[in-house]
Amino acid sequence: MLRRLILAAACGLGLSVPAFAQAPQDCPRGALDARFCDRDGDLVADTPTDPRQQVDPAVLVFAYTPVEDPAMYRSVFDGFLAHLSRLTGKRTQFFAVQNNAAQIEAMRAGRLHIAGFNTGGTPLAVNCAGFVPFAVMASNDGQFGYEMEVIVRADGPIQRMEDLRGRTLAFTSQTSNSGFRAPQVLLRDQFNMLADRDFRTAFSGSHQNSVIGVANRDYDAAAIANEVMARMIARNVVRADQFRTIYKSATFPTTGYGLAHNLTPALQERIREAFFTFPWEGSALAREFGNAVPPMQKFLPITYREHWEVVRQVDAALGVQYRCQ
């Protein structure tokens, strides 16, 4: 586990992860940790030019962003991992992570090779763990993303954001974009409301927990990713008529899929091929993610520099600083 994942920064967040011994390199790197180089300016770590620093593991370890039931998602990704194994000629292993900190540490330590990081955790994974995102799930016509929604009970008294004053608002975790950072900026800048001054806060640990918590009246309201709630409704975990949405944001990118920067170039190419040639029709991925809006029906190529710009803007508004130490 991470020795520390702390929050500290003037008017915002500072996230720290432990550094693993490696001498800093004399190269351009922007915001990346000193272990990495960014000579091409794409904001992600370059593959090491020295073949001795490249890795070609016998077993490829994959982790999906932490969810309430990791065991369920193991079966959801079984078909994809079998496809990945066929194209790479390597065994694969699903790593069920319990939190973002453990997922980032595993890639930083070299124990995790391929991953889907949540929207808000992707910048920390990029800058501190050498994560290189290259795909998101999208519809067949190329639509992707989700919105942050603030939800309340449909039969409750809260009708608008201003009604949150004096109430309990659930966030998910400090690394979540839609579950913490984006709603903080929204409440501060558009409604002049601050946590623990104008409303009480709680941390549920996941979007699923937040949705269920509102349904069960544990929280008055919650900031959630609507794609998660849509999948829960499709699985009959909750009902749509239990909730009222009092705010819906602009669209954010969803989970970023990618790989560790130091895999051999040939292996990286085969991994990318596995994502973009995976047959979705009839798959467990299609059954689980096809109920999103827009539906997720394929992997679409993206770049961190372009598609995570809006997330980096939210981080900047909060004064987020990523410190890998």
UniProtKB/TrEMBL annotation:
GO biological process terms held by the UniProt record: transmembrane transport
N-terminal signal peptide: 1-21
SUPFAM superfamilies: Periplasmic binding protein-like II
Keyword Cytoplasm recorded: no
GO CC, alphabetical: ATP-binding cassette (ABC) transporter complex
Keywords, alphabetical: Signal
InterPro entries associated with the record: PhnD
Keyword Signal (UniProt): yes
Family indicated by similarity: Belongs to the phosphate/phosphite/phosphonate binding protein family.
Full protein name: Phosphonate transport system substrate-binding protein
Gene source species: Neoroseomonas alkaliterrae
Organism phylogeny: Bacteria, Pseudomonadati, Pseudomonadota, Alphaproteobacteria, Acetobacterales
